[in-house]
Design a protein that fits this description.
Cro/C1-type_HTH; DNA binding; seven-stranded mixed beta sheet; elongated; 434 Repressor (Amino-terminal Domain); about 290 residues; DNA-binding protein; 2 domains
Length: about 290
């Protein structure tokens, strides 16, 4: 029996995605890269699809050809060095990284995302005003430009829900996320109206865990579970914390978070009842002058 191919780590997948992006930015085909570096086209394909870990000299040849700047060069070399390790904690940085964030890259490639949020509405379902208020609240020292960059990035992310092969998005939120007046009554009223509309999309499932459900497995905090079309790309768990971005990919972690999400599905209201609760909260807010 042939040995089972080892699935690529999250670092190797991130490195491959970034090398694809850099080649695209340089407007070069794989054939042109091969001609200019001597790297075999098949090898380049395997590197760009995370099927192979490049040798350091191969990586340096690509970085030189793409004229990669020192900071990003160091970032990619560090990914190469640790490419075989599972799990990944990316330390917190206040600014949006130039190479875009790892999470956004994986989200754009995923075929399905399951997201639990306890205090925020999911970024993919946020209105622009709500997103701006959230970002200002979470990052009080951010400049106006930094806030707007993040708002723009968040709104652009939402294109995954309406592309030709849209992302299958299943979101579960605690009722607290619907009742917290982020940005004030007017902003929250607009957000609830926006939410009522977008959750009608056939590729979106939205559920709310009501206060009456009591304690539940999601109370420790938010998480995202992503799955991918390619069977070689194993599921990823993403947790956004004050310490930084944490990616988990071990079989044990994936099994545990799948089980947690299944439990949350069971304690949450049905999608129809959740939609009714959104309208009920919106009506209460409007009655109070929101």
């Amino acid at each position: 029996m042939a040995p089972r191919r080892q699935t690529p780590s999250v670092r190797l997948r991130r490195m491959a995605a970034e090398l694809r992006r850099l080649r695209g930015a340089a407007d070069l085909s794989r054939e042109q890269v091969s001609e200019q570096t001597g790297i075999n086209e098949a090898t380049l394909y395997r590197i760009e699809t995370a099927r192979a870990r490049p040798q350091k000299r191969t990586m340096m040849a690509l970085l030189n050809l793409y004229d990669v700047q020192p900071e990003q060069r160091d970032y990619l070399i560090s990914l190469l060095k640790d490419a075989t390790q599972q799990g990944w904690l990316r330390p917190y940085h206040s600014e949006l990284p130039e190479e875009y964030t790892a999470y956004i890259s994986f989200e754009s490639e995923a075929q399905g995302v399951r997201n639990y949020e306890s205090l925020f509405l999911p970024g993919l379902l946020q209105s622009e005003a709500y997103a701006r208020a959230v970002i200002r609240g979470v990052l009080p020292s951010a400049t106006d430009d930094e806030v707007e960059d993040r708002v723009q990035a968040r709104i652009e992310r939402q294109a995954v829900l309406t592309k030709d092969k849209p992302l299958k998005f299943w979101a579960i939120v605690d009722e607290a996320a619907l009742r917290r007046l982020v940005g004030g009554a007017a902003v929250m009223g607009e957000q609830l109206k926006h939410l009522s509309t977008v959750v009608k999309s056939p590729n979106i499932t939205f559920q709310v865990i009501p206060f009456g459900a009591g304690a539940h497995p999601g109370m420790p905090g938010q998480f995202v579970l992503m799955d991918f079309e390619d069977p070689m790309d194993t599921d990823l768990i993403y947790i956004d914390s004050m310490a930084g971005d944490l990616f988990l990919e071990s079989d044990a972690d994936i099994t545990r978070y799948r089980s947690i999400f299944d439990n949350l599905v069971a304690v949450a209201l049905s999608p129809n009842d959740s939609a009714s609760l959104i309208k009920e909260i919106a009506s209460e807010l409007k009655a109070k002058g929101g």
